[in-house]
């Protein structure tokens, strides 16, 4: 059996090499962005996940989650029900529910949980998730079942939008995560730029 100290030494050496390699990217100077983005541009990047948000959104400018989908978008989804605006603010801004005959969904603007990077860093607190993208924004599918899915989409370094989707066994909406992502992509169009 090897002494524990040599394992720790090897691990420390590997970590140091990884850190040094990350700081000296080809064509860049130690630690500076090499993507061509200046420090004054509004792109944000997470040190934890590496998820870039090239065009951050100002979720704080949204006061009513029910305004995050237009009537036209709801028609495209086949949603004919009126929204229900919840009284309690769950994660910073009060959520909005739609419940139709074939499916239901909730939009939850999240300005309190630390954004998508918090989910990536904590592995959804041990519950797991699947990384994806929605309209070029970093996202994750969580709480996935045959009938439900939550798409969490990072809109800035510290904010995200959650879309909880539930299918009532609707054949056209048999993939709840794809449906949640479709709705989230529509929502993104209605959040002002940061």
TrEMBL record:
InterPro entries: DUF3558 (IPR024520). Residues 1-21 form the signal peptide. Keywords: Signal. Residues 27-54 are annotated as: Disordered. It holds the Pfam family DUF3558. The keyword Signal applies. Residues 34-52 have a biased composition (Low complexity). This is DUF3558 domain-containing protein. It comes from Actinopolyspora xinjiangensis.
